[in-house]
Design goal:
It is a single chain. This protein is α/β, with parallel strands linked by helices and about 400 residues long. The chain is about 25% helix and about 15% strand. It contains ten helices and 14 strands. β9 and β10 form a beta hairpin.
């Protein structure tokens, strides 16, 4: 078995080298997805994080080759994940009218939000793997809604072009079926167009009105005195790439969906903490009813709590505090094995961090396929932050230290 394992490791490494050659040798694979004037986050060729760049190195500070080899061979000491997780898929209603809001976690960063007669999807992926040519991490949990049980989708937001967030096969299926409005950030429309799907690409701060489908009276019969819903592309802290040579050729983002009443929806996308101020900016658009915040893929070595590219549960709690959201739901965990923490570590650490930070409101993890109802927003005064040192000391317990 040992010989077979090493043979498989050699084959995997040869495959990685072949993909590297495919990406590096032909210069046309360094796609230039966007051309525009330089700005505070674009140098005329590539985008960057204006609050400081800490996403370029590997999460373990080892060489990129050593990091990729350890991941490909499974020789990295990571705790095991289950091969399969049982899921009971939801069957959501066709529409949810008025102020009521229903939310279903489909898995990873894919969430269905239903409110005000609108059906909204975030970073949809129904594919079995997250990667190019069918390679990449495989699902351990089937989608929480079967694709055929999805209601007609009005709006899709796509945060950036990583394969676990921009799944061209799923976007094509959605477009062919529903013709939804797709909103993303600069340059990503060029990538999505490769699947024959149109998308509106906006810079941070750009906004566009949401055009409802008029196949249901509840979706279109709105009081003209009430502001139309809109989506705003907002800042976060990340990076982008589809190949090895097109790094940061397209922009990454979070989103605020301004709704007629009841409070706004915030989707953080895929993000590190950066300066945290982007969460303050999002809150500036109005009270946040629901915040969808990532908590997984933060541990690449024992004890690690976050990376430049990904917030862990402790940093996600601080984002939730700054947003002042009424309800938070944890995403980006438990679907694809992307890092080194155990599958159940993110939600368990989130529960402990919420208790230690003493943040009001409800921010927790729900099961894939579960539907929850979200109450209307309350524009409460933000609580003061608890010093990070105090939170870390509070978390320094045998139970938390035992989390892998």
């Amino acid at each position: 078995m040992t010989l077979l394992r090493y043979l498989l490791a050699v084959l995997l490494w040869l495959l990685i080298l072949a993909l590297l050659a495919i990406a590096i040798v032909p210069s046309f694979l360094d796609r230039r997805y966007y051309d525009g004037s330089a700005s505070e986050h674009y140098d005329g060729e590539r985008f960057f994080n204006p609050d400081g760049e800490d996403t370029a190195s590997t999460p373990t500070r080892r060489s990129r080759g050593a990091f990729l080899f350890a991941q490909a061979t499974g020789n990295d000491g990571r705790p095991p994940w289950p091969a399969r997780v049982a899921v009971t898929p939801a069957k959501p209603p066709r529409r949810v009218a008025g102020d009521r809001m229903l939310v279903t976690w489909v898995g990873h960063a894919t969430v269905l939000v239903q409110t005000a007669g609108l059906n909204i999807l975030t970073d949809p992926i129904w594919s079995d793997t997250a990667g190019p040519f069918g390679f990449g991490p495989s699902r351990v949990a089937e989608p929480g809604i079967r694709f055929d049980d999805l209601p007609p989708i009005d709006l899709v937001v796509v945060s950036h072009n990583h394969y676990d967030h921009m799944d061209l096969a799923t976007l094509k299926r959605l477009w062919d079926r529903d013709r939804p409005q797709i909103v993303t950030s600069l340059g990503n429309d060029s990538v999505i167009a490769q699947a024959g799907v149109p998308a509106a690409a906006l810079d941070w701060g750009g906004r566009t009105e949401i055009v409802p489908r008029c196949d249901d009276s509840d979706a279109c019969a709105r009081d003209p005195r009430i502001s139309a819903p809109e989506v705003i592309v907002t800042r976060n802290h990340h990076w982008s790439s589809r190949w090895f040579t097109d790094r940061n050729r397209a922009l990454w983002s979070s989103f605020v969906v301004k709704l007629p009443s009841g409070g706004n929806l915030f989707f953080a996308g895929d993000t590190g903490a950066g300066d945290y101020a982007w969460a303050d900016e999002a809150r500036g658009y109005g009270p946040i009813r629901l915040a969808l915040l990532p908590i997984g893929a933060f541990r690449f070595q024992p004890g690690q709590m976050s990376t430049g590219s990904h917030v862990g549960p402790v940093e996600a709690v601080e984002l939730f505090r700054r947003l002042g959201a009424t309800r938070g739901i944890a995403v980006h965990w438990g679907t694809f094995r992307l890092s080194y923490e155990a599958r159940d570590t993110p939600p368990r650490l989130l529960k402990a961090a919420m208790a230690c930070a003493r943040v009001p409101g409800r921010f927790d993890a729900i099961a894939i396929g579960r539907t929850v109802e979200v109450p209307a927003a309350t524009d409460a005064t933000l609580p003061p932050p608890r010093p990070r040192g105090e939170i870390d000391r509070c978390l320094d317990t045998p139970a938390v230290r035992a989390l892998k």
